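Hi R.,

Here's the chain you asked about this morning:
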Amino acid sequence: MPPRLRRPSPSCKVSTTSSQCSVTAPARCAFSTSSTLARKQTKMRREFFEWLNGPGAVFQKPPPGNHNYLTDYDTTTGKPKEIPRRPTPFPLNPFFVSTPVLSDELANEVYRRAIQVGKSVRMVSAELNISLERVAAIVRLKTIEKRWEEEGKPLKPFLTKAIHSMLPVTKFAGGLGGTHEPINDLPSHSRTHVQHFVPVSESRAFTRADAGAEFGIPSADEMIPHPELIVEEKEKLQFNPEERRKRAEEKEREEAAKKREEEAKRLAREKQNEIILERGRWRWKIQSAETGKVGYRYGVPHEDRKRGQVKIPTRVD
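And the predicted structure, written out as tokens:
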């Protein structure tokens, strides 16, 4: 039986003129590693390592306490620029400004004033120039951190140190703090996204309160996060420091009394909606409730096992 021949591939040449088959290998394509693109890549690579060993050596070991951005140095000499610039990490995008983060000392001071001293979140925000949302987040996270320390759980501060070495950091300077971020920016209300044309006489003073009434929202002085700062600036022009101090203490006492009154009303409402039955050594507490707002359905998992649920404290009592 003659030998079985394989089907020839397109890249092979088969000769069957004789009783023996011969397969000729295809000629290899000519390939050169010294093409123009390869030479260009090699040159760019060589120039990169020359710059990295020369002016770019300052980026291998950044100095402590500095974010060490590329825009802070002269790329040809590697020397720091004399005129400080805004923290822009990308040279080709000067409009991106790096946002500073709070130092650990300043975060501890926020927690101390809010929890240990007992100041309100609004007062701490005004004193340290930190937004209300950031102050509340710091207090919640610090509360979890303190609880973990009491439970003996290990903390991993290396990530915080790494972030502080790469971003601008606002440090605690003592006293009333510095300028970390604007805290009194006017929020953009959805009703103000549509233009309103209102005819106004020249003799009429159209104020911000009139503009808010036209849109159906409060005035700008009431919508800002810290309306008390406007009142404080107005009092500086009307009263001396001693009178302002007395007015601030009186206002603080009124707010504390109002808060206690609201808490007493809340407890009275809760007590009104409940019935306590004492039967022997048993004490039953019955509260009025609505179907669908209390209790759990059989077979439904807890909310904390669902994705996207907030699992940290959202309120500081």
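Confidence is low (pLDDT under 50) at residues 11-26.

Let me know if you need anything else.
M.
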